[in-house]
Amino acid sequence: MLSLMICEDEPAQTAFLAELVQRWADRRRLPVQILSYPSAESFLFSYSEDPAGDILLLDIQLDGMDGVSLAKKIREGNQRIQIIFITGLPDFMGEGYEVDALHYLLKPVREEKLFQVLDRAADRLQQAPRTVLLPINGRPVRIFTSDILYAEAFSHTLTLHLKNGEEALRMRLSDLEEVLGQGFYRCHRSYIVSLEHTRQVLRTAVVLDDSQQIPLSRGAYDGMVQAFLHSS
Fold first, then answer.
1. Is 194 helix (H, G, I), strand (E, B) or coil?
2. What is the pLDDT of residues 161-191, one digit of tens each?
């Protein structure tokens, strides 16, 4: 399901945008969840609890924190979300290019123009690297699956080994296996490996592209070989 958020301090404008978004989703036959926020502060409060979402329709001229400042905070840890600025004044359209906004829409927003921009946003999301939301340090964090080398369960701890370091998770390896899904393989009762980062499959080990060797159980050998071949 596509998650689309509207941050707008005018209730009538919020309702209008939500109606247009639902109409767009119905025509494209896309399931969509529409969430609305009356201020940047209310958005950040919700976002800190669950930093998810695919598309953000963001008014630049908000009471309190403005839309450009909010976008900069979002971009500190999220490059995937598609930000579409909305403004009533052309003078504001030059602001915020550093936050990689997809587009600027002038009020009153026209249906045809909004639909075109939402189509572009949906296309960009399909091309974007896949991410997963994982519990790290007590809060959900979005991680690119391409950054994950392997996961290791030891005693009561679960460690996610990434290209640039490690992260401790509070979840079971079987639950992580379900979240990661396609592109990963449970090669051992204590290990899940990335097929993308697998260089070679030996009888007793999986060799990663950084030369690390991950244990491979005897019963998982045939399945690992098949998964590796189909991922190539």
1. strand
2. 999 899 999 899 999 999 998 899 999 999 9
